[in-house]
């Protein structure tokens, strides 16, 4: 699958397909896609996660053992449906807490009132995933049930207990606290993700009123110092109203401090109608910004293809500039 095709699929984000074709259904419980039925499509080693929606302009059908995706009757991709382990293929990706006290205007999680997993539940889920023999990494993320400090404490304990048992890389994505970076590193985490969400200062203040972008950037800087180069990443949502110029400035700012940005296409969730104006990026915009990102990563000596945990190796929701775009 060419990056332009993947960009097109991400831009649409869904296919009209018989859900019975998915023998492994996934209903994400975190982030902007929470609550949708989705599956992983793989074509030529390139992966994309697609929601199943009747109203999608893309149609997917099984033909001779392959899933064929068409737009207006014209084939645009063919490949297979990939099984997930926990949340995504090859990884046990655990959401510790599916609630959030923050109120980012694009995110449905605070309104979904999801579950909080106990330590025993998480350890059992990971033990079961390990039994399959296909667990290449463990990733941990979380909303914020009561405080960021409490989530860091839980992540720290979970990482420590997993490190004693499993010899796979562990990545953690939480909201940072004053000492989260040092504590997670000491517990044995290998990779770190603190999400900036947007680098547009004005939009950040409006859309993430409970978060502090400068604090997040300081935490990311410290993350790079403690975890090292090519070990720290950050989700950067595209389509919240930022201009290309603002997005490019933000990409360069992150890359210049040693952070690998993940350009995530914004999605309008029905529970957030009226609170945010989402302009889902076009395939052309996704390609343009990812080519810019690739150029900047290369200029600053960073890689998007050496991470072992979380979204960069998964590539389901985003173009990975080094895995999906050829040199
Ligand atoms: S790219 Fe990240 S959010 Fe998307 S499916 Fe993969 S692990 Fe989940």
TrEMBL record:
**What positions does the domain Radical SAM core occupy?**
86-296
Q: Tell me which positions the record assigns to the signal sequence.
A: none
| SUPFAM superfamilies (UniProt xref) | Radical SAM enzymes
Which residue windows are transmembrane per the record? none
Protein name, per record: Biotin synthase-related protein, radical SAM superfamily
GO MF assignments: iron-sulfur cluster binding; metal ion binding; transferase activity
> Lineage, please?
Archaea, Methanobacteriati, Methanobacteriota, Stenosarchaea group, Methanomicrobia
Q: Which Gene3D superfamilies match?
A: Aldolase class I
One Pfam family name is Radical_SAM
Organism field: Methanolobus profundi
């Amino acid at each position: 699958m060419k990056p332009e095709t993947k960009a097109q699929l991400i831009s649409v984000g869904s296919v009209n397909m018989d859900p019975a074709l998915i023998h492994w259904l996934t209903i994400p419980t975190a982030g902007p896609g929470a609550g949708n039925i989705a599956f992983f499509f793989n074509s030529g080693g390139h992966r994309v996660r697609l929601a199943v929606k009747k109203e999608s302009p893309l149609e997917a059908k099984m033909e001779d053992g392959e899933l064929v995706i068409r737009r207006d009757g014209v084939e645009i991709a063919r490949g297979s449906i990939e099984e997930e382990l926990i949340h995504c293929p090859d990884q046990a990706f655990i959401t510790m807490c599916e609630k959030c006290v923050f109120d980012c205007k694009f995110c449905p999680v605070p309104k979904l009132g999801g579950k909080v997993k106990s330590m025993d539940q998480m350890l059992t889920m990971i033990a079961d995933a390990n039994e399959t023999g296909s667990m290449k990494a463990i990733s941990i993320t979380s909303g914020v049930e009561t405080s960021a400090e409490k989530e860091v404490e839980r992540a720290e304990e979970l990482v420590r207990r997993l490190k004693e048992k499993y010899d796979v890389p562990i990545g953690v994505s939480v909201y940072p606290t004053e000492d989260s970076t040092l504590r997670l590193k000491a517990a044995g985490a290998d990779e770190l993700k603190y999400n900036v969400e947007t680098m547009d200062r004005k939009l950040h203040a409006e859309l993430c009123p409970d978060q502090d972008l400068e604090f997040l950037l300081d935490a990311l800087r410290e993350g790079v110092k403690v975890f090292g180069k090519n070990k720290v990443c950050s989700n950067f949502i595209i389509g919240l109203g930022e201009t290309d110029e603002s997005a490019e400035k933000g990409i360069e700012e992150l890359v210049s401090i040693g952070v690998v940005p993940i350009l995530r296409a914004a999605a309008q969730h029905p529970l957030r109608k009226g609170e945010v104006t989402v302009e889902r990026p076009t395939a052309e915009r996704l390609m343009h910004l990812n080519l810019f990102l690739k150029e900047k990563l290369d200029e600053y000596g960073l890689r998007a293809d050496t991470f072992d945990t979380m979204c960069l190796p998964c590539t389901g929701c985003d173009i990975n500039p080094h895995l999906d775009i050829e040199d």
